[in-house]
Structure formats: structure tokens, C-alpha cells
Amino acid sequence: MDATQWQERIASELADLGQQEFVVVGEPEPAAPEPTGFLARLRAKASAPAPFRWGQVLCVDEILYAEFTGTQHIGGTWPASAERHEALRAAGWLTPEETDPIAPAPSQPHYWRTVPQSEAELVARLLVEAFGILGADFATLTLRRDR
């Protein structure tokens, strides 16, 4: 799917979310290389997983709570230039230090946004733009819906 198709699919899923349902869109988690040798296996257990790009949206009382991969500029794990951070901000994402009249910021270092469920298309656009800004390959994205 291309960006337009993803935006349409995400908007449709978000508009249809029920209470406490959520959608996760993202890249497959990178597979860790197989460690060899005793010391390599010990180091592999202690190392952090490789970062990947993802977004998630939870629906509570017809409010959508959206989060997107945090870049290193806000304490997250995804490496990105200052220009890409500013592009995410210009697209409409909030940083953890910012406030929103609808809900408090997440406790994790992620970009975030809360909007009424009636504005599902806005959240879909934010997610698709964010994946594009951070250089994701739309052909590799997956969507999972759950409770």
C-alpha cells in the first residue's frame, strides 16, 4: 500500500474503534542477530533491541489517544535529524513536555496527540506523515487492531 491507501485504511479503522480498542501501525521489529559464543550470548541479553518506527492509537470515551515513535530529540530511541524532529512538530505532533486540553501527556518519550474520534482522519494523516518524515517504507508497514 502507498501513503494514501494507508491513510484511508487507518482512518477507517480509527473511526470504527470501540471503547478500549486500539490500533498499532508499524514496521516489523528488527530481528536480533544470532549471538555466537558464551560471551556474545551474555552481551546479547543485556543489549537493547534495535529501534523501529511505530504508532498506536487507543480509543477511550470517543477520544483517540495517539502516540508515535519518539526520536532522540525528546528522549526516544529513533535517531533523526533536528529537521525531521521539527517536521514532526510542524505536522501537528506534540512532545512529552507539551500540554493538551483533552488529556495529559504520555509518560514515555513519544510524540503524541489526543483528538475526538470524529477527527480520525486527522490522526490517520498524522501517522502517515510521521512514517514518511522518518523515512519508513510503506510497503513494510503492518496494522494490528486489538483490545
TrEMBL record:
Q: Which residues form the TY-Chap N-terminal domain?
A: 5-131
Q: Which InterPro entries match?
A: TY-Chap_N
Which superkingdom? Bacteria
Listed name of the protein: TY-Chap N-terminal domain-containing protein
Q: Which organism is it from?
A: Nocardioides luteus
